[in-house]
Specification:
The complex is a heterodimer of chains A (311) and B (155). Chain A has helices at residues 3-14, 20-23, 44-67, 82-89, 93-99, 134-147, 215-223, 258-264, 271-291, 296-299, 302-310; strands at 78-79, 109-110, 118-119, 122-129, 152-154, 157-160, 172-175, 181-183, 188-193, 195-199, 207-209, 231-234, 238-241. With 311 residues, chain A is α+β, with helices and mostly antiparallel strands. In chain A, the strands form 4 sheets. In chain A, strands 2, 3, 4, 9, 12 and 13 form a 6-stranded mixed β-sheet that branches. A 3-stranded antiparallel β-sheet of chain A has the order 1-6-7. In chain A, strands 5-8 form a two-stranded antiparallel ribbon. In chain A, strand 12 (231-234) and strand 13 (238-241) form a beta hairpin. The two termini of chain B are 24 Å apart. By secondary structure, chain B is mainly α. Classes of the chains: A alpha+beta (311), B mainly alpha (155). Chain A binds chain B through residues 1, 6, 9-10, 12-13, 18-19, 26, 29-31, 38-43, 46-47, 50, 53-54, 57, 61, 64-65, 68, 248, 251-252, 254-257, 259-260, 263-264, 266-267, 269-270, and chain B through 7, 36-38, 43-44, 48, 50-51, 54, 88, 90-92, 103, 106, 110, 113-114, 117-118, 122, 138, 142-143, 145-148, 150-155.
Amino acid sequence: MSKKSVAERRQAVGSGGGRNGSSGSRGGRTPSRRNPRAQQRRPWGLYSAIAGVVAVFVIVVVVLEVTAQPATQDTQVLSAPASVVAALTKVPQSALDTVGGGAANTPPHALSGSTKLTQNGKPEVLYIGAEYCPYCALERWSLIGALSKFGTFSNLKIIRSSLTDSAGPNIPTFTFAHGVTYSSSYISFVAREIYSNVPDASSVTGYAPFQTLTKEETSLFSSIGQDGFPFVDFGGVAAQVGSESTSPGPPALSNLSWQQVASDLSHLKSSQAQMILGGMNYDTAAICKMTGGKPGKVCSQSVVQQLEGNL
Amino acid sequence: MSFWSGPGRPGALLLMAFSVAGFGVAAYLTTVHYANVPLLCSASGLINCSRVVTSQFSVVPGTNLPITVPGMGFFLVSFGLALAQFRRPFRYSLRQAHLGWACLGLLTVFYLVFVELVELHNICLWCTSVHALIVLTLITTAWRLHPLDEALTPS
């Protein structure tokens, strides 16, 4: 369009004539002398078509939502992604120093007069939990990070906690069952997942019973753990009963992916980092307390020594 | 009649404003993606931006390109079309092209809203603001097709 033609048209508009007076109509799209009412017409057909498409979309979404099957418990047991394991087991010491105790407001407490737990001549960490349990789901992140400073996990698996637990549904976590092994020259690690995350209406918890406890473990679970999980006995010198973090607690991890939680560990102000790394530091301190400060490169860290003094 | 309020120009300016705002939000989400920093938004409950923008649907299918990059492109083109209309307010074909572009945006909004509500069951407020800007662009471009609007003519 030339500048001249624009000027002409502007002039035409200014005089109220429009283009039709000078160059003729090009069909119904433009005002017409023969049909002046056309000038008043907006493209209602177009508007209706757009509104109709939007309405169809809304109806489709509503119908899909209404007819959707309720979400079901995720019972898959999958190999833990290497990136997630690396993010959890190789947290920089500077990050752990920065977080300190973090949001771990109910950390392990020292035990006095309790029988020392050992296995194969090494101090034993005993974990008792359940795969459906949201607090256990949170605790495993911290415990794996701490235990990895003293040894190596193999074949780690990921699962999700209960989809319906009001304490925090659908939390991405790990399991200590299903072939997971741990080796260390300093400590032994014994883990029992006494319920799975497979729904079972006949079970008292609503989830199928899974691994069983020995008599000694049952006794410790009842006397020190008060039959609540997660329960972690650090060689009989310290114990963790329930979640190490109650605020914000497991809901902060609800519906997240493992990768998201792993990524959050590098954001030290995030709730996830504050709870998991804070718990990791406390668990490390408790293990150092039972190993007598071995290995030195782990137990001599100032944050560990400070928290060990708090136990 | 001033330069800014000439025929068709307020509408074009409005479309430019939508484009700038949309581009800004898309650029912010893209920055968050690459800088790996927390998003300023709720991270739990129904409104969970983090969950949405880190989901498998947050990238162009088959690639690692965040979907916010084509989003930036959408608003860049939209701005260009609005600027062209500002300079040539009587060119009807520009308005038609902008409407077509906005319709394409609407289809994308449909897909993303479907993903949020049906697949993820989470809503991202940043994404919703982008969706709203696309819908507003569509409404504005459709409204500007009025035959009497500055005596538009096909060209």
